[in-house]
Design brief:
The chain has 274 residues and is mostly beta strands. It has two helices and 15 strands. It is globular.
Length: 274
């Protein structure tokens, strides 16, 4: 069971002084497997307790850049390796972030085989690991990412403007399903500043209080697709791209809440996508 404090920001001075990582050379294709991490040894018990963890290379593949272009928006792609072993739940952990557990996601059968992308903040050079839960238990895979300053990077918009459009959503569909295989690919974006608590107002230089989406669900008609329980490590204006089996429903319904008690619900028509 995930320890709730691992989602909350820790305001320590050390977390505020990391410099942004340098530019990524074109064609940078360096392999970046997980490395030894004393931090994970300390975190493991809070994240999964005493549950045994197996090697996840045959279960889930994780794609993340070796050197991120933008530490505040690092793409993470999850692929199910074994087509006959659906991934029911995935926990994304960024070892060196102030709040290491970035997201806990649950998936319905329609999401299998899993093909899912989200964007996260990385605050310093760190392992980014994914714990996948299947009928065979818990397994782990991940990547080592070179990025710095993602959690304290300034928001891209003025706070008043960012809050003005908060909760607006857009849907993008990428292809029509084939008649024999009703598989579709979609992307959902939710406008929300997802403040980490480590960012400063660029005018007053005061810290902006943490304020982020903490729960989101996506449904197709009456059928649940997936949920995300997130923390400060999810990027500003969260984006989720995913494949799923289409049940014929005309809309995808997104339900979300944030840490200020706001609720956002929107029906996104596949025919009238944003």
């Amino acid at each position: 069971m995930t320890h709730p404090t691992l989602f909350a920001p820790t305001l320590c001075a050390a977390a505020l002084v990391f410099l942004l990582a340098g530019p990524v050379p074109a064609g940078d294709a360096v392999e970046n497997p997980l490395i030894d991490s004393p931090t994970w040894a300390e975190l493991r018990g809070d994240v999964v307790g005493d549950v045994p963890i197996s090697d996840g290379t045959g279960i889930i593949d994780v794609e993340a850049p070796y050197r991120a272009h933008d530490a505040a928006t690092v793409p993470v792609i999850l692929h199910q390796v074994d087509p006959d072993l659906p991934i029911q739940k995935a926990t994304v952990v960024i070892d060196e972030n102030p709040a290491p557990v970035a997201a806990v996601m649950t998936f319905a059968k329609a999401m299998a085989p899993l093909d899912f992308e989200l964007r996260v903040r990385v605050n310093q050079y760190s392992n980014l690991r994914v714990l996948a839960e299947t009928d065979q238990g818990l397994s782990m895979n991940g990547r080592f990412v070179k990025a710095s300053g993602g959690c304290s990077a300034p928001a891209t918009r003025d706070p008043e403007l960012a809050l003005d459009g908060m909760g607006q959503m857009k849907l993008r569909m990428f292809q029509e399903p084939a008649m024999s295989v009703p598989r579709r690919e979609a992307q959902i974006m939710i406008r929300h500043p997802n403040y980490s608590g480590l960012q400063r107002d660029q005018v007053t230089q005061l810290f902006i209080p943490a304020h982020f989406i903490d729960h989101m669900e996506v449904w197709q008609g009456d059928d649940f697709l997936f949920s995300v329980d997130g923390g400060i490590s999810i990027s500003e204006n969260p984006v989720f791209r995913f494949a799923y089996d289409d049940n014929g429903a005309e809309v995808l319904t997104v339900k979300a809440t944030d840490t200020e008690g706001n609720s956002f619900t929107q029906e996104l028509s596949k025919a009238m996508q944003g």
